């Protein structure tokens, strides 16, 4: 009899980021996406209908702070684990995530290997807790100590199968356009340069960020959504 899949809910208002999480989560054996919410209110409403094993939760939601949503989950849905995925890198937010009982905290822009290894570690932790009724101190120490090593960063050369929605020729065009400039640019700038739609360019840029070919910085203005600017990372050549 096969193991019951680990069910996942994504709480992320950025549609492209949510698609990336869904694509790579689906590549992991034993995981199943069962819902996606774009606001905190929507997530709470869904949680009264479906109960995922783990929540992939952003901090910057349109209607509430993800930390507040984490507290609500802990108050009303204690059996759900939470992995924070966010651009928030201030110490206070990280501290509150720890206090709120988050399993892990991934800072955007995410790397494929970090994202996938975190979910794999989570699955391993669940298996160990389900296989025993009692546990000794050594095993407890291992559960409370996350893996110290960082896996090698995955590049486009090691991604043998492109995710759905990423075309090889279009990816090459976006990559070539990024290499032509030494300045950071937002998705609108590159869309005009490449003659493509904003949504298409944004999807490809986020994919290049996920494989560490492009870096991204988030700039916060006084009003409106934060602006994301992308910069090409010069690739090292083998000697």
Automatic annotation (TrEMBL):
Subcellular location: Cytoplasm
4-aspartylphosphate modification, residue list: 58
Keywords: Activator, Cytoplasm, DNA-binding, Phosphoprotein, Transcription, Transcription regulation, Two-component regulatory system
Pfam families per record: HTH_64, Response_reg
Domain of life, per lineage: Bacteria
Family matches, as PROSITE patterns: RESPONSE_REGULATORY
Family matches, as InterPro entries: 2C-system_Tx_regulators (IPR051271), CheY-like_superfamily (IPR011006), DpiA-like_HTH (IPR048714), Sig_transdc_resp-reg_cit/mal (IPR024187), Sig_transdc_resp-reg_receiver (IPR001789), WH_DNA-bd_sf (IPR036390)
SMART domains associated with the record: REC
TM segment ranges: none
Ranges of residues in domain Response regulatory: 7-123
Major subcellular site: cytoplasm
Name of the featured protein: Transcriptional regulatory protein
